[in-house]
Amino acid sequence: MGANRIGTSRTSLVVFHMQGCPACHEYLPRLRAAARRHPTVPVHVMEAGQNSQLADAFKVSAVPATFVVKGTRSIRREGALPDHEIEWAFRLAEHHA
């Protein structure tokens, strides 16, 4: 999972997190479980501090931050999403694949 395929015509999820963030620590296992249920959706999980230029480009102001991205368009959701919104993000990505 990395940034090398972000911005392509394929719809993907981009998630920023930070080391030591309690909300991120709780969120990422639920996100990964959903990713296993939706194997056709690429997921790029990135540590915001180590990818600060990309985080800035996405205008990340809080973590975790989840984006559904296709080309140069994205939908942003900040904070630890509840399970039903994680599923919504994956379904949206599948629908716009």
Task: Please outline what is shown here.
The protein has three helices and four strands. It has 97 residues and is α+β, with helices and mostly antiparallel strands.
Would you kindly provide a written description of the structure presented here, covering whatever features stand out?
The chain has 97 residues and is α+β, with helices and mostly antiparallel strands. It has a single domain, classed as 3-Layer(aba) Sandwich (Glutaredoxin). Helix content is 36%, strand content 24%. It contains 3 helices and 4 strands. The chain has helices at 22-37, 52-57, 83-95; strands spanning 12-17, 43-47, 65-70, 73-78. Strand 3 and strand 4 form a beta hairpin. Helix 1 (22-37) packs across helix 3 (83-95). The longest helix has 16 residues, at 22-37. The protein is globular and about 30 Å long.
Strand order of the largest sheet: 2-1-3-4
Alpha-carbon Rg, integer? 12 Å
Say how many strands there are. Answer: 4
The second-level CATH architecture is 3-Layer(aba) Sandwich
Strand content: 15-25%
Task: Kindly identify the CATH topology.
Answer: Glutaredoxin
Layout of strands and helices, then pairs:
Blueprint lengths: L11 E6 L4 H16 L5 E5 L4 H6 L7 E6 L2 E6 L4 H13 L2
Parallel strand pairs: 1-2
Antiparallel strand pairs: 1-3, 3-4
Pick out its properties:
single chain, 97 residues, alpha+beta, Glutaredoxin, globular
